[in-house]
Design goal:
There is one protein chain. The chain has 25 helices and 20 strands. 39% of the residues lie in helices and 20% in strands. The protein is globular. It is an alpha/beta fold. The longest helix is centred in the N-terminal third of the chain and has 33 residues. It binds adenosine-5'-diphosphate and magnesium ion (MG). The site of magnesium ion has 4 residues, from helix 10. Adenosine-5'-diphosphate (ADP) binds next to helix 10.
């Protein structure tokens, strides 16, 4: 084997200055190959481009000085602090140096050595004289050596691998590595004004100027995002190429009739979204679209129109709701709006399936195309139901993350049905691009007219009585109210012992302050039939106060409800609280959401403040993301995408969008096969098994 050959997949152990022991330490940083090492980017830089003569040092500035060391000594204070001091002199003057608690320096340095020191000059508190006591780094200059000047990288390091090691080994790697071939076509480079890859890679480690550094970071962040986007698009393309989808005709009579009979005018965003959806459905490629819109933005009607379009084309549709309550509600809406035009809508939910006979009949009718649209929960629609001609599947995910549960319905059909996913999760755009990267995204930002903003207030548990007195006033004025609690029953576990369960709160309120008010109780352990009854009574206004667990979280629509009290608000996540309060503010009344908590934790306080400050779900999600970081934001729903090494989806929004657009064109054009081959190779190099299915192709 020739040692001069160089492969990025080689073990980093063979790099000059590394060796087996350091390679083992590098592995702890997830660095195994040469490529891993090359893409171990600096976390910061030190500007060491010019040497300052000691006489010209300025206070509070970080500077590089070079001089001879003398008077090196160490003393210990009474409190045990070890102070190392010395003098550094050059031809213009001298300055004291001070290190604290760094005994190893005594072994490394000795009087007479020439040092390059980078540090900040301060006024000494005792002597009042200038001293360099914030020393960022120093290196020994042996006879005949020149100081290494420039913008120096600072790498993420460990105890056993210091900056000097990284700088030296990286220099070796860059010297040994052949010029990196360009992986992007010239038109992309020109259009986006990106510097060549080889220049970028060398400049990110040792930038000749700050301008180079900026351009290098931009280029490498682009590449990283571009590669991932290409990977996602190739996956999307592959699934689309496999079988053909259905193509619908242009919008026809039936759709027009339904549209004209809607009880309201669509908002601009709703119109735009439906137009896009209609176009997707008319195309031969299967639709894979995500509609993202805050709670109450009116996603349902867009889905309904899409379903009507499918029906108009002789196809069937399925609408999957996240809960039974919601399935019931959608069924009511759909049947009142659609049945008068001859569209046959069926509900498959607890209500119906309690009778095996009715359920069987709906299954039979669906199979024989005697039903056009089936509405149910995810479970009900999936289990064993088969369609004569399924054309569109709508999934209402509400705030659930991820696209993990791809419907099994899809696999049964001969042609791939179109698919529409709706989510109320206000995921920032940048995140959508990465998490839902294989779906096209439509955004409904505009709210239907006439919505009053919800006033959100957080209160300490001490003020509970005041809060409920206020609720009583609202109810006396004709409104209705929700009280939401985190748990059903007091659990045995220590952790939740202080939580007031819904049942207890219900007892306390309905016998106490609300004893003359009709109250209802709703929780997840109730039988579906009981739930329906309780919900129905609240909807019709028979009950005024509804105490519940989070089962009311999703989609329930009672416009007269204007107050929501959340007990133990600190137990809920930001996104969930935002969803919850979306239940109020649906009518013309001024609405309130009152968060009761007894938590003093900063993070809980910060969350309450964010909720008080904005009603905009998107802003809120971004703040939540900042507060918790992407990992926690997505919780257990693994997004399964590689970690980014240099790009930052918040800071680099513009780069991300450019990368997305470029990737889209690139993958569909496939004009330049050479680039395509190198793209696959780079994907494999950078992300290995994450994109295995396409890199093996
Ligand atoms: P979400 O996006 O949260 O699912 P919905 O589809 O349930 O929201 O809509 C919330 C409410 O707004 C419903 O009562 C619906 O009838 C109403 N709505 C939807 N679109 C409009 C509109 N363009 N104008 C007026 N009201 C609308
Ligand atoms: Mg909804």
């Amino acid at each position: 084997m020739s040692r001069t050959e160089f492969e990025f997949t080689d073990n980093v152990m063979y790099l000059k200055g590394v060796g087996p022991r350091r390679a083992a330490a590098l592995e702890k940083l997830n660095i195994v190959t040469m490529y891993d090492f090359l893409t171990h980017y600096p976390r910061a830089y030190e500007d060491q481009r010019t040497i300052t003569p000691i006489a010209n040092l300025e206070l509070d500035q970080t500077s590089v000085i070079v001089g001879r060391l003398s008077n090196l000594s160490m003393r210990e204070t009474r409190t045990g602090l070890k102070i190392i001091s010395a003098i550094l002199s050059d031809r213009t003057g001298h300055i004291p140096l001070t290190w604290f608690n760094q005994e190893y320096i005594m072994e490394k340095l000795s009087d007479g050595m020439t040092l390059v020191v980078i540090g900040k000059t301060k006024l000494d508190g005792w002597s009042g004289e200038p001293v360099m006591n914030q020393i960022a780094s120093f290196s020994i200059l042996y006879p005949g050596e020149k100081p290494r000047l420039g913008i120096m990288p600072i790498y993420p390091a460990t105890a056993s691998l210091n900056q000097n090691f990284f700088r030296a080994a990286m220099t070796n790697l860059l010297n040994k590595m052949p010029a990196l071939p360009e992986i992007l076509p010239k038109n992309i480079l020109d259009e986006l004004n990106l510097i060549p890859l080889d220049v970028a890679m060398r400049s990110i480690h040792f930038p000749p100027t700050p301008e180079y550094l900026h351009a290098a970071r931009r280029r490498l962040a682009f590449d990283e995002l571009f590669l991932i986007q290409c990977g996602l698009m190739l996956i999307k393309k592959q699934t689309r190429d496999e079988r053909l989808g259905i193509s619908c005709e242009k919008n026809g009579r039936l759709l027009k009739t339904v549209y004209e009979n809607l009880p309201f005018e669509l908002t601009g965003d709703q119109k735009k979204t439906f137009k896009t959806v209609a176009k997707d459905m008319e195309s031969k490629l299967p639709m894979r679209r995500l509609i993202q819109g805050d709670v109450g933005s009116g996603k349902t009607v867009v889905a309904m129109l899409a379903l009507v379009k499918a029906v108009e084309n002789g196809l069937q549709g399925a609408f999957m709701a996240p809960t039974e309550i919601l399935a019931n509600q959608h069924y009511e809406t759909f049947s009142t709006m659609l049945e008068r035009f001859g569209i046959r809508v069926a509900l498959l939910s607890g209500k119906v399936t309690r009778s095996a006979k009715v359920k069987k009949e709906i299954y039979r009718q669906t199979e024989n195309h005697e039903i056009d649209i089936v509405i149910g929960t995810h479970a009900l629609v999936q289990e064993g139901l088969s369609f004569a001609k399924l054309g569109l599947v709508v999934t209402d995910e509400q705030h659930r993350f991820g696209v993990a549960q791809r419907s099994s319905l899809e696999k049964k059909a001969e042609l791939i049905p179109d698919m529409l996913v709706m989510t109320a999760t206000p995921i920032p755009r940048t995140m959508t691009l990465t998490v839902y990267g294989d779906l096209d995204v439509s955004l409904i930002k505009e709210m239907p007219p006439g919505r009053k903003p919800i006033k959100t207030i957080s209160r300490h548990i001490r003020s509970r009585n005041k809060v409920y007195n206020f609720v009583l006033e609202e109810i006396s004025a004709g409104r209705q109210a929700y009280v939401v609690c985190p748990l059903i029953q007091r659990s045995d576990s220590e952790k939740f012992q202080n939580l007031d369960p819904a049942i207890e709160i219900y007892e306390m309120l309905s016998r106490g302050i609300f004893k003359n008010v009709p109250c209802g109780l709703l929780h997840g352990k109730m039988k579906p039939k009981e739930k329906d009854e309780v919900m129905e009574k609240f909807r019709t206004g028979e009950t005024k106060l509804l105490v519940s667990t989070t089962v009311i979280e999703v989609g329930v629509d009672v416009p007269n409800a204007s107050v929501m009290v959340v007990e133990h608000a600190e137990r809920f996540g930001l996104a969930q609280l935002h969803q919850l309060r979306g239940r109020v503010g649906r009518g013309s009344q001024k609405s309130y959401c009152i968060l009761i908590s007894d938590s003093k934790a900063d993070i809980a306080k910060a969350r309450m403040e964010i909720l008080e400050s904005t009603n905009d779900g998107f802003k809120l999600a971004e703040k939540d993301l900042q507060l918790r970081g992407p990992g926690q934001f997505f919780g257990e729903a693994q997004h399964g995408l590689p970690d980014l090494k240099i790009a930052d989806v918040f800071r680099d929004v513009e780069i991300l969008i450019a990368a997305r657009d470029a990737a889209e064109k690139f993958v569909t054009d496939e004009e330049d096969l050479n680039y395509f081959v190198s793209l696959r190779k780079n994907l494999a190099l950078a992300y290995g098994e994450k994109f295995q299915q396409i890199t093996e192709a």
